[in-house]
Amino acid sequence: MRTAKQKNRMGEMDYGIFYAVIILLAIGVIMIYSASSYYAMFKEGDSMMYLKKQLIWAITGLIGMVVISSFDYHKIKKITPHILITTVPLLIAVFFFPAVNGAKRWIQLGPLSFQPSELTKYAVVMFLAMSLDAKGDGVKKFLTGIVPYLGVSGFFAAMILAEKNLSIAAIIMIVTFIMLFVSGGRLQDLFGKVAPVLLVAVMIFIFGEDYRRARMLNFLNPWQDPAGDGYQLIQSFYALGAGGVTGLGLGQSRQKTLYMPEPHNDFIFSIIGEELGLIGCLFIVSLFVFFVWRGIKVAINAKDSYGTLLAIGITSIIAVQAIINIAVVTGSMPVTGVPMPFISYGGTSLVINMMAMGIILNISRQVKGKEV
């Protein structure tokens, strides 16, 4: 007979996900230093300033991931409503702080800043996983099984959109669509009713603001305004083109020397392409593909539908962000502010992503047919 302690013992985590995340994190720290050193020296007088901050956040995120991976993910259900409700005043609070690059997305407290939208996207995923699990086959009914969830996600997406953050708002709606599909929503409802409405809404939002419309037009032909809206994308093309197949070598980027605006942020992938070449870029893409594959495997083998939905939601956030970031940097879609997960500079995004990895690792420790 098993003892209570034995029954509560979890299995091993998915080391594929663990090592993929660690490698991406290590690449991020190295490349942030390489990409930001010149910029930091010129702007801040300390070439290692961004490296030091990112190291602190990386260590914090690692600790958070390890700690959360040891807690039963089912306990998240109890705090999910509180987290979701808490995000509302946080999203409102950003409007009381100064805008950064024309957008109000951050709560700034002295040297520290917090971006509530990064927390919100995971809060929405946790809510959807909890509620869709309870809904069961009820999701097959359009008016009572799909519309309410689109309403909840749409509410938070609208709040984030008010901050001039179309990218995170779009990610929330895309991931909501994926989770509704996985939970059993009917194809005729999702693809026949929901998808067209979402596409129309995106087009309205893009062309409803002058700066978004300018981004769209410059994405189609960035050289029509090479010193303005098309500047960053053109510099990204120069960086990727200069890197070729093997790259110029680590630390040898030319575009990071004040040609590329803030090269350690959303466009760090172009600096990676310049220094590490096509080979380096393909290696990073392969790591994300591997992560997505393992994340789907964890979802399939999860102990229950709640774990499946939670794993799919978390995996989808990382996958969609990576796809959008790479698409933007390579000129495959309009320029938008989506950081590359685990690699781009930023404390809020990194720490929260790492904590989410703790959740998916815990799900991987509890598989079908295993008592915990």
From TrEMBL:
Pfam families tied to this protein: FTSW_RODA_SPOVE
Function according to Swiss-Prot or TrEMBL: Peptidoglycan polymerase that is essential for cell division.
Subcellular location: Cell membrane
Organism of derivation: Clostridium gallinarum
Membrane topology recorded in Swiss-Prot or TrEMBL: Multi-pass membrane protein
Enzyme class: transferase
Highest rank taxon of the organism: Bacteria
The protein's annotated pathway: Cell wall biogenesis; peptidoglycan biosynthesis
Name of the protein in question: Probable peptidoglycan glycosyltransferase FtsW
Catalytic activity: [GlcNAc-(1->4)-Mur2Ac(oyl-L-Ala-gamma-D-Glu-L-Lys-D-Ala-D-Ala)](n)-di-trans,octa-cis-undecaprenyl diphosphate + beta-D-GlcNAc-(1->4)-Mur2Ac(oyl-L-Ala-gamma-D-Glu-L-Lys-D-Ala-D-Ala)-di-trans,octa-cis-undecaprenyl diphosphate = [GlcNAc-(1->4)-Mur2Ac(oyl-L-Ala-gamma-D-Glu-L-Lys-D-Ala-D-Ala)](n+1)-di-trans,octa-cis-undecaprenyl diphosphate + di-trans,octa-cis-undecaprenyl diphosphate + H(+)
